[in-house]
Design a protein that fits this description.
- The chain is an alpha/beta fold.
- The protein has two domains: about 130 residues, serine acetyltransferase, domain 1 (Orthogonal Bundle), CATH 1.10.3130; about 100 residues, Hexapeptide repeat proteins (UDP N-Acetylglucosamine Acyltransferase, domain 1, 3 Solenoid), CATH 2.160.10.10.
- The chain is about 45% helix and about 15% strand.
- The protein has eight helices and 14 strands.
- Strands 1-4-7-10-13 form a five-stranded parallel sheet.
- Helix 5 packs antiparallel against helix 7.
- The longest helix has 21 residues.
- The radius of gyration is 21 Å and the shape is globular.
């Protein structure tokens, strides 16, 4: 009984919301891509949203939903561009349907575009919870504050980290393990641009790390696998790691 009294003295947090937000996000994605699902579940999705905001003590829930719902067509149009970029750039892709139904990178982008809109509407906590749901589902960690342009393609997805103040322009491709992060981790830098800017047409290969708010990767550049970058790169550059593979043949 004493232990219960001590717990009661703590501030309460609605940890069950983690599951509710996961269900809400999945239903939201289903509605966005399936008209039949939207017809059946659209009103229920709105109610889920309002209940979540109520648990988060957010007022004007219906007004926020109306503004959020007004963005769905635009978000869907942008996601169709992302899917087309995946089909166009991935030689393993057999159909556009495969991108929508099976690509974890595309799913992560879809959740990001939705959570980013909610962040712009100044909805607290929920956008970050949605991004963490996508992270747990896809292995891709995109902060909802990141600004991402059109025709964005994430291949393989696993291990990608895109920080809060990252800016990604149009027609960018990134591969697994890429980090777009900050060069320092200090609370005093919270209101500054801490993460890089990636210009149009850039390709960033597996496990590359790009750090710093002043870093700009110039348009149409290629960043090779395992590269670590902390300085700006001019446009039309190719950056690779210089390494030597020593091959030894066993003697019988």
């Amino acid at each position: 009984m004493k232990e219960i009294e001590q717990i009661v003295a703590f501030k309460n947090y609605s940890m069950c919301l983690r599951h509710a937000v996961g269900d809400f996000t999945k239903q939201l994605i289903n509605n966005l891509f399936d008209v039949n699902h939207l017809t059946e579940s659209g009103p229920e999705t709105r109610i889920m949203f309002l209940k979540i905001l109520d648990r988060l003590s957010v007022e004007n829930g219906q007004e926020l939903w109306n503004q959020f719902e007004d963005s769905f067509i635009t978000i869907r149009q942008r996601l169709d561009l992302d899917a087309a970029a995946a089909e166009r750039n991935d030689p393993a892709c057999k159909s556009l349907e495969e991108v929508y139904l099976a690509y974890p990178g595309f799913y992560a982008i879809a959740v990001h575009r939705l959570s980013h809109k909610l962040l712009k509407l100044e909805v607290p906590v929920l956008p970050r919870m949605m991004s963490e749901f996508a992270h747990s589902s896809t292995g891709t960690d995109i902060h909802p504050g990141a600004e991402i342009g059109d025709s964005f393609f994430i291949d393989h997805a696993t291990g990608i980290v895109i920080g809060e103040t990252t800016v990604i322009k149009d027609n960018v491709q990134i591969f697994q393990g890429v980090t777009l992060g900050g060069i320092q981790v200090k609370k005093s830098l919270a209101s500054t641009k801490r993460h890089p800017t990636i210009e149009n047409g850039v390709t960033i290969y597996a496990n590359a790390t790009i750090l710093g708010g002043d870093v700009v990767i110039g348009a149409n550049s290629v960043i090779g696998a395992n590269v670590c970058i902390t300085d700006a790169i001019p446009e039309n550059s190719i950056v690779t790691v210089q390494s030597e593979n020593n091959i030894f043949q066993k003697k019988n």
